[in-house]
Write a structure and sequence with these properties.
The structure holds two protein chains of two kinds. Chain A is of the alpha/beta class. Chain A is built from eleven helices and ten strands. Chain A has helices spanning 57-64, 94-100, 115-119, 121-125, 131-144, 148-151, 164-176, 194-207, 220-226, 244-249, 254-260; strands at 19-28, 31-41, 46-50, 74-82, 85-86, 101-104, 182-186, 212-216, 229-234, 237-243. In chain A, the strands form two sheets. Chain A has a six-stranded mixed sheet with strand order 6-7-8-3-9-10, with helices on both faces. In chain A, strands 2-1-4-5 form a four-stranded antiparallel sheet, with helices on one face. The termini of chain A are far apart. In chain B, strand 13 (278-279) and strand 14 (284-285) form a beta hairpin. The chains are: A alpha/beta, B alpha+beta. Bound molecules: adenosine-5'-diphosphate and magnesium ion (MG).
Chain lengths: 265, 543
């Protein structure tokens, strides 16, 4: 299980083009959802995707782990590379891609199983039987997701008994249990109250020591609080992509300016 | 124009609401009516009623409870003529156990305490006046003596014990011997055919024959021993009869019983009905083999239909290319549910029994066919073919329910599993199927309910009026899938429509119906219990 080794925690800011999206376009049937997107996401940083509803943030995010493959009649152009390797490389299995790119959804979606089984699900499916290892992974994942103290006494109770915020953190624990390199989050806090949101944001801060995080968010405050870089999309096009500071303080595009200042029609 | 804001009743839609509730009420009333009829008639059978001695005009008397009273068919409405039906019993004397008499012929009715009811192994029940009892030790008790009643009950239970011994002897030991002899005979024929030494087999057969004769003698001795005790009685016409106690299953004094004693007999009869084997062409005794057969068939059917249905539905929903062909297959599956069940019976007979069973016989039981007068093993009706036929019949129910259940698993759960790197099959296996399990079980429950109540196709593929053995017993290989078996639904049909004395059979029809309903309800409750436990485990989260 080499995957379970903790990756050497190097200085923040590794490769600058860890994820590299190149001239990427995407169609649902005949409807074009994304148009020539090009951006590089640095290693172990948090990148936020912002933009009005329907502008293609989720579509782009779901392409990074090829979740969109589930949809019929899709087509893409251009390329996405992770660590210099195309994710569309026929030699790369989708399953192994998804093991490297974890995902947290907008609606928390725990399995109707125990908390323990939820967390170790990714290990179960690769056939890990070793009880001690499963327990260890469960604990470290839950700790990283800042949920351990709340659930350590009821690991074998149903996950469906947790509160909304706890469920979402459980989903984060589940997504990081097999130590992916990248964590995709699609509006992880949109269904949560401010306290739970605060906890998850704190968590993102800690997780970026280890993971490259791409987060879609509706809340500009959230983008400003958690991300290092921000991309603004509008109608399937990438309008501006820069450091968060630049985007929020001094955007170069008038559309961006309009959007972040709330003047958007 | 001044107009008060009134809405017409029709606009508010109230009549439609009433109509829907009316529909529900009609449905409920019909179900309740059916159930109460079945329950009251079904339970009445077991209740020991008082027995009247009725004197008729021409000096004739009858002993027996009145069963029903009606206007004689064809009598003028202005001056209706009533007639009554009595259960007169004693078929050997009266010919028919139930008889109609014009009410005008009744002169006098009384309920004398000395009247006794007897349930017997043959010729149905009898209502008589006891005279004297000779017990197995040869001691005589007059009916007037105080010790008579207790001594009679002692002798009845003693006789029951002997009958049981004989039954177990014939069933287990003689049955075992029979099957061994059968095997040896086949061996012998084979040996003769293939010019192998026949002497050892003949010796073995001789040995078995002797053992058989020994057991037979033993059984006869037991019966003789019981034959010593006898009860002398007078029938309604004051003719004397001698009834060997060996024949008597139950004796009671219907006009002397307290309520508690009546209840006792009521429950002991219910117990007998559930646990005993049938007697007298199924019109008396119990229905245990039929209960057992129905249960075994239903359970086995569920075990067959569930995997097939679930696998088919998983393929249809998760893997098959959505398109015209798939829609066509779906329509076919749904229409399969509308095919008359007898058609499945014919298919089962033609394909399962003759083709599949015949092939199995040819492949694995060729010897048996050749040396046993071509009597088939699997190439004739049997438990497995019945289960398969009904499994096929109920397959659409399971497929449709499973597809529905798979479709209602939240998409998020599927995506969550795939996003952690699980394959499609792992997602189905670990997430989707468990979450869909309650819905799948609902389908299985419906299938079971439909299968357990089905009769017509079974008549073609292996259900019989009287099966000598149960499909599961203590003889290896314990589960005999090839055996014919009895079934409550068929039992009912057979009693109601095929028995020579339909009046005598009617109470049993109701009792059997009641039992079948209870059985189906129990099976359903069992399945619903399992489903609810699963539901509690997989209850959907509140997001
Ligand atoms: N499965 C799908 N099939 C067809 N069109 C889709 C599908 N998912 C999203 N779209 C369309 O693609 C566009 C982008 O959607 P999405 O990426 O979900 O936007 P966002 O997440 O930014 O709100 C929208 O116009 C939406 O209607
Ligand atoms: Mg979205």
């Amino acid at each position: 299980m080499t995957r379970l080794k903790v990756r050497p925690s190097t200085e923040r800011g590794g490769r600058k083009d860890y994820i590299s999206i190149k001239n990427f376009g995407f169609w649902y049937g005949s409807k074009k959802a994304l148009e020539s997107i090009s951006l590089d996401i640095p290693e172990r940083q948090v990148v936020a995707f912002i933009g009005p509803s329907g502008c293609g943030k989720s579509t782009l995010l779901r392409n990074l782990n090829r979740m969109n493959d589930l949809v019929d009649n899709i087509r893409h152009e251009g390329d996405i590379q992770i660590d210099s390797r195309s994710i569309y490389d026929p030699g790369l299995e989708v399953i192994s891609l998804r093991r490297r790119v974890g995902m947290v959804f907008q609606k928390s979606n725990p399995f109707p199983k125990s908390i323990f089984e939820n967390v170790v699900y990714a290990l179960r499916v690769v056939g890990v039987r070793d009880r001690a290892l499963l327990e260890e992974v469960c604990e470290t994942s839950l700790r990283k997701a800042a949920l351990w103290d709340e659930v350590k006494d009821r690991l074998h109770d149903s996950a469906l008994g947790l509160s909304g915020g706890q469920m979402q953190r459980l989903c984060i624990a589940r997504a990081i249990a097999n130590r992916p390199e990248i964590l995709l989050m699609d509006e992880p806090c949109s269904a949560l109250d401010p306290i739970a949101t605060g906890k998850i944001e704190e968590l993102i801060h800690e997780l970026k020591e280890q993971f490259t995080i791409v987060i879609v968010t509706h809340s500009m405050q959230q983008a400003a609080r958690v991300s290092d870089r921000t991309a603004f999309f509008y109608l399937g096009k990438q309008v501006e992509y820069d450091t968060t500071e630049k985007i929020f303080m001094n955007p170069s595009q008038p559309q961006t300016e309009a959007y972040i200042s709330g003047r958007f029609g | 124009m001044s107009s008060t804001p009134t809405t017409s009743t029709t606009a508010r839609g109230e009549p439609w609401v009433w109509l829907t509730s009316l529909g529900l009420i009609v449905g409920l009333v019909m179900v309740a009516g059916l159930l109460s009829l079945v329950v009251s008639e079904g339970l009445r059978v077991f209740w020991p009623e008082t027995v009247a001695v009725t004197e008729l005009k021409e000096g004739r008397a009858i002993i027996g409870p009145m069963v029903q009273r009606r206007i004689r068919p064809g009598s003028p409405a202005s001056a209706p003529v009533y007639e009554r039906q009595y259960q007169v019993g004693m078929r050997e004397v009266n010919g028919q156990a139930y008889q109609w008499f014009d009410e005008s012929r009744v002169v006098k009715e009384s309920f004398p305490a000395e009247v006794m009811g007897l349930e017997r192994m043959e010729n149905g029940p009898a209502f008589v006046r006891p005279v004297r009892l000779t017990n197995s030790a040869g001691k005589v008790y007059q009916a007037t003596e105080a010790a008579f009643a207790t001594e009679l009950q002692n002798e009845v239970s003693r006789a029951a014990g002997i009958r049981e011994k004989i039954a177990s002897l014939t069933k287990n030991e003689i049955g075992d011997l029979n099957s061994q002899m059968e095997k040896s005979r086949i061996d012998l024929r084979r040996a003769e055919d293939q010019h192998l030494p026949v002497e050892p087999i003949k010796a073995r057969l001789e040995q078995l024959n002797q053992a058989y004769a020994g057991l037979h003698d033993q059984a006869e001795n037991l019966q003789k021993q019981a034959g010593l005790a006898k009860l002398e009685v007078l029938d309604a016409a004051k003719n004397a009869h001698v009834i060997p106690l060996f024949q008597i299953v139950r004796a009671w004094s219907p006009n002397q019983l307290s309520f508690g004693e009546r209840l006792g007999i009521f429950f002991s009869r219910i117990g007998e009905f559930i646990t005993a084997e049938p007697r007298e062409a199924n019109t008396e005794g119990g229905v245990m083999p039929a209960i057992f057969g129905t249960l075994a068939m239903t359970v086995f059917m569920s075990l067959l239909v569930t995997p097939f249905g679930v696998i088919a539905a998983v393929y249809l929903r998760e893997y098959a290319q959505q398109g015209f062909l798939l829609r066509f297959v779906r329509i076919c599956v749904n229409n399969l549910a509308g095919v008359p069940s007898i058609v499945f019976g014919v298919f089962g007979l033609g394909f399962f029994v003759y083709v599949l069973g015949g092939t199995i016989d040819q492949l694995f039981f060729a010897d048996q066919l050749k040396y046993n007068n071509h009597s088939p093993v699997f190439g004739t009706g049997g438990l497995v073919w019945c289960s398969l036929t009904l499994a096929l019949m109920t397959l659409p129910v399971v497929i449709v329910a499973t597809e529905e259940a798979l479709g209602s698993v939240p998409r998020g759960m599927r995506e969550a599993s795939l996003a952690t790197g699980a394959s499609k099959w792992q997602t189905i296996r670990y997430v989707i199927l468990p979450a869909a399990a309650p819905g799948i079980l609902t389908g299985v429950i419906l299938a079971m309910a439909r299968g357990a109540g089905e009769v017509a196709p079974l008549m073609l593929v292996g259900v019989v009026k009287l099966a000598p053995t149960l499909p599961i017993d203590a003889t290896a290989p314990f589960l005999h899938l090839d055996r014919k078996f009895m079934h409550l639904g068929f039992h009912e049909y057979d009693l109601g429509f095929q028995s020579p004395d339909s009046d005598a059979a009617r109470p049993m029809v109701f009792a059997t119906t009641l039992l079948l309903i209870i059985l189906v309800v129990c099976l359903n409750i069992g399945a619903i219990y399992i489903r609810n436990r699963l539901r509690a485990r997989y209850k959907s989260a509140s997001f």
